[in-house]
From TrEMBL:
Pfam families: Germane. InterPro entries: GerMN (IPR019606). SMART domains: Germane (SM00909). Residues 68-153, 209-298 form the GerMN domain. This is GerMN domain-containing protein.
Length: 322
């Protein structure tokens, strides 16, 4: 009887081992060594401007965000392989990583915005492919000091993964870069400015002044902020002279239409003036309508001379009363 029980126990142990061994094997292949998770770090191959992985492992931790941050820091280390260099410039700092389901939100320093087009494409691609080498991360989103990357239309670059980010070394022909624009919108009753710092993708071949106007016309992205420039307004031309005067040539829609029902005409004008004067090269703004100077704007403001920036809308009202 005891012998039968012993044989039964032995059979159960064998069955359990048969079931568990494949699981243990798979777990071992994921961890590589005890307490370590397999991963890949992507570096730049200088010869053909492509990315190539180097297999590595990172400490297995309860918080996936810690593992991801450790892997990002590993990207900045010298790969110590001939012909390969780090894809992340030394000046770019990783500030934080947050996990949302299987998406890693990576916040980087503002120095990221100073990268040229080729550097930015390589760096962003390397980050995406490196982090998605971890089983628990499928998608990556980049922010710059808490602000989302946006394209020239003001839309977020959004989620990236191995399907929409290439690593074959192809760099877009157009020269693009990122910039932080300070855009002046208003509140619900038009009593003062609401300033939005917006990270946008800009074309180096397009005047920054035009990009600012495009973003103002597109309207605010923040809740509680309200548009100031009529959405139908068309930009005929915008140029800045050596003496710091920015000539803004707009369509008649700027005169005949309004951004919102409650908008103050003064708000509309100075939202453009203040936004443009945030640029170092712009000191004053001169408005033109269909290429011509006009005497006044809706009988409220003198349009015959250039405008300078103001600190608040209350200041403008005081000037109008005097």
């Amino acid at each position: 009887m005891k012998k039968k029980k012993w044989l039964l126990h032995l059979a159960l142990v064998v069955i359990v081992c048969i079931i568990l061994l494949p699981c243990l094997f798979l777990l071992g292949s994921k961890l590589g060594t005890s307490g370590m998770a397999d991963a890949e770090v992507y570096y730049l191959v200088s010869a053909n401007n492509s990315l190539k992985e180097v297999r590595t492992n990172v400490p297995q931790e309860t918080e996936t965000s810690n593992m991801a941050f450790h892997l990002l820091e590993r990207m900045k280390e010298d790969p110590k392989k001939d012909g390969m260099v780090t894809a992340v410039p030394a000046e770019v700092e990783f500030l934080s990583v947050q996990l949302e389901d299987k998406k890693a939100v990576v916040d980087v320093s503002s120095s990221y915005l100073a990268l040229d087009n080729a550097q930015e494409v390589v760096c962003r691609s390397a980050i995406v492919w490196t982090l998605t080498s971890l089983d628990m991360i499928d998608n990556v989103e980049l922010t710059v000091e808490g602000r989302s990357l946006r394209n020239q239309q003001g839309k977020e670059i959004g989620v990236m993964n191995r399907e929409n980010v290439r690593i074959d070394g192809d760099v877009p022909a157009e020269t693009t870069e990122y910039a932080i624009l300070k855009l002046y919108f208003t509140n619900a009753d038009g009593t003062d400015f609401q300033i939005e710092d917006r990270v946008v993708e800009v074309n180096a071949n397009q005047a920054r002044e035009k990009t600012i106007l495009e973003q103002l016309i597109a309207g605010p992205l923040e809740k509680g902020y309200y548009p100031t420039v009529p959405a139908d307004t068309k930009i005929r031309d915008v140029t800045t002279t050596k003496d710091g005067i920015c000539y803004v040539n707009l369509s008649q829609d700027f005169l005949t239409k309004t951004a919102t029902a409650n908008i103050n005409d003064v708000v509309t004008v100075y939202s453009i003036v203040n936004s443009l004067c945030e640029l170092e090269e712009v000191d004053k703004v001169q408005f033109l309508m269909e290429g011509e100077k006009i005497e006044d704007y809706k009988g409220v403001l003198d349009f015959s001379t250039p405008f300078t920036a103001v600190e608040s809308l209350q200041t403008i009202r005081l000037q109008n009363k005097q």
